[in-house]
Amino acid sequence: RGFIELQGEIQGVGRLSYIGTDLATALADRDVIMIVTTATGHRPVAGRMAPLLRDGQVILLNPGRTFGALEFSRVLRQCGCRAEPIVGEANTLVYVCRVPVAGTAVIKAVKREVSVSAVRAEATPYLLRRLGGVYPQFVPAPSFLETSLGNIGAIFHPTIALFNKQRIRAKEAFDFYTAGITRQAAQFLARVDGEFQSLAKALDARPLSVAQWLHSRYGLEPSDVYTMLRTNPGYQDIEAPTTLDHRYLWEDIPMGLVPISELAKALG
């Protein structure tokens, strides 16, 4: 039908000039390319895009997860890309949304700020100039270390999913971020956040803590993580998965937590 219906915080119709699987057609004459997929898709997408790019195109991974933009740039070179695009990553998605039926997106919340960085930090201002008019939420990060080490999904998703694994296996209906966050899960989540912060400090990076992130992205009153998650309006009515075969585990552990762990080991 050529459009996406938007409901919730943003209402209207988003018309699309092309919907299909021909990558050459999708990329032709595009100045800005936004990659919105799980981190497991970054490598294959980069490989297919490599011969189709031109100098100066902006490629933004939204989000980049953990070192997504770095991997994307490396794969482009490995696959013989001769162009010089500007590759960057966002720290998180701009929208909290779900797709109840094909062709309809329900926008549950719009984040107030999302940090972005190009792989080459000196290119970040240009990237923001190209995207800022459409996404005023984008703010510059000093480097991709900050956007990657601030991968909030890798902190939230596996922790909450594993603390609720029996409920998920039983296919119990509950809100993932609110009803799924117990005091014990929140304490463990804070420990994971602390390890991220320790690694970031060793690399002289300063990603936001979980509490700071929730405050800046959603405008929540500063409090403990348990309270902030339970009371976040943007997290209401987001249902938990009914299987552990879900991106919260098969994306966020190998593509999020494992790279963080390996980097920490490398730094001793």
TrEMBL record:
Gene Ontology MF terms: oxidoreductase activity
Pfam families: Octopine_DH
Protein name: Opine dehydrogenase domain-containing protein
Domain Opine dehydrogenase: 141-268
TM helices/strands, residue ranges: none
